[in-house]
Design goal:
single chain, alpha+beta, Coagulation Factor XIII, Chain A, domain 1, six-stranded mixed beta sheet, three-stranded antiparallel beta sheet, 2 helices, 30% strand, GlcNAc_Chitin_IntDeg, Chitin-binding protein, signal
Length: 197
Amino acid sequence: MRTRKLSMAGIAVGALALTVSTSIPLAYGHGYTTAPISRAKNCANGTVQNCGQIQWEPQSTEGPKGFPGAGPADGKLCSAGLSQFAQLDDQRGGAWPATQLTAGATYTFRWHLTAAHATTDFKYYVTKQGWNQNAPLTRSALELTPFLTVPMGGARPAYDVAHAGTLPNRTGRHMILAVWTIADTANAFYQCSDVRF
């Protein structure tokens, strides 16, 4: 009788472990933009100080997919809505380093993936002319039609990704929001880059 009770307990524990392990969504893809360099990567490089946890994991700005209709809340786009990365949403009075770009030119956007994953697409958004540079990034500050979309159709990208596209017509300081949407999870990765046209 004792052996049967132990066996039943073992089965119950095994079933519980299986339920827990299969109910937690796992995202195997992680990555960050290197061109134009993102806030997360600037923190990891030590170029920007007082960044908190993102300095050790620039590849982890992962939030709900579906941007712009869904995804992280306004004001938390750069951190992907993750409180441990909230420093990325702080505009710091314009002190983030900005990559110099030429409006209308062809530019190659680059990602480094620490773990590639089946991908829906990569999309690139830019702020509107006259956006509020002192406020955390919101949808109303962005052109919500991406200026570059790279569809992947569920394919797994290389670890170093390059996307050539035409830069939008802008002048002055702006932000580019790059969104990497994962095909087989509920998540996407969000990277904010400060740029100057």
